Amino acid sequence: MDIRQLRYFLAVAREGQVTSAAKRLNMEQPPLSRQMKMLEQELGVTLFDRSGKRLTLTHAGELLRERAERLLQQFDETVQEVRELDEGIQGVLSIGSVVSCVSLLPRRIERFRQQFPGVTFKIREGDHFLLGEQMEKRNIELVIARLPFEAASDPERYSVLPLPPDPFVALLPDSWSPASAEPGIDMRELAQYPFITLKSDQTTGMHAKVLKEFRQSGLEPRILCECSSVAITIALVAAGIGATILPKSVTASFPLTNISTFPIANADFHSENGIVWLRDRYLSKTARRFIDMFQDLP
């Protein structure tokens, strides 16, 4: 059994058909079928149930698939690490970001490109659940996200570099004038307005933090809408539907037409941000240097 056979086996396991796996591998079907037979003979087990229209994995096949994926990931990362010993900072850096953290990227990418012009970027947007999946599949190396990182995997699988805290601010339609003459707006007044909260089925951390701040003041917000999209939340505020509380950095990423922004008086609470990556994954030189950029550039 060798690395090539493991790659062949995984292709067949994923496709469920030797024909489509062969096309994916750019090879003929008969040689691929022979490789699978040879692998089963060498291991002394049946890896595929061939009784249906599609090949399905036996218990032995499932175990081999799980171990083969790990072995090939480690092999590919080892090859990358060895090749990088004599290479500079270059190549493609694939990162993910939640929408509410996008404003943290442009200045750092600009500075990074000035220092390392050989680097290009791929940026994927999504919630914690999706971005966690993308990291697991090795499609992205780093994620910029609000903390805690609420992906499906065990939190112990992730390394996290905390970033400076981001103060929350209140967003109100321009047509709503706060009763107080102070420059900020307090939680008691916010509790009187119809409220739009940022919350999805998978990510509830920010919603919980805002509710906790209300309740610590003995208040309960009048929640009109739970919204999973930052853009839609801001659009609803602009339309005069309700007020919301968001991290201050979010306001740099969206036009705030017909919206007034206020600091929150008598409440000192922040959103925590961070860079997240898989603890057991080899990080490229480029990824490690990009992490350093967040430490060098507050």
Explain this structure to me?
By secondary structure, the chain is an alpha/beta fold. Helix content is 40%, strand content 24%. The protein has helices spanning 3-15, 18-25, 29-43, 59-84, 106-115, 128-136, 187-190, 205-216, 230-238, 285-296; strands at residues 48-49, 56-57, 91-97, 119-125, 142-147, 158-173, 185-186, 194-198, 222-227, 244-247, 259-265, 270-278. The strands form 3 sheets. Strands 3, 4, 5, 6, 7, 10, 11 and 12 form an 8-stranded mixed beta sheet that branches. The chain has a two-stranded antiparallel ribbon with strand order 1-2. Strands 8-9 form a two-stranded parallel sheet. A hairpin with a 6-residue loop joins strand 1 (48-49) and strand 2. Helix 1 (3-15) packs across helix 2 and helix 1 (3-15) crosses helix 4 (59-84). The mean pLDDT is 89.
Task: Break the fold down into its secondary structure elements and pairings.
Layout: H1 3-15, H2 18-25, H3 29-43, E1 48-49, E2 56-57, H4 59-84, E3 91-97, H5 106-115, E4 119-125, H6 128-136, E5 142-147, E6 158-173, E7 185-186, H7 187-190, E8 194-198, H8 205-216, E9 222-227, H9 230-238, E10 244-247, E11 259-265, E12 270-278, H10 285-296
Parallel strand pairs: 3-4, 3-5, 7-11, 8-9
Antiparallel strand pairs: 1-2, 5-12, 6-10, 6-11, 6-12
Helix pairs in contact: 1-2, 1-4
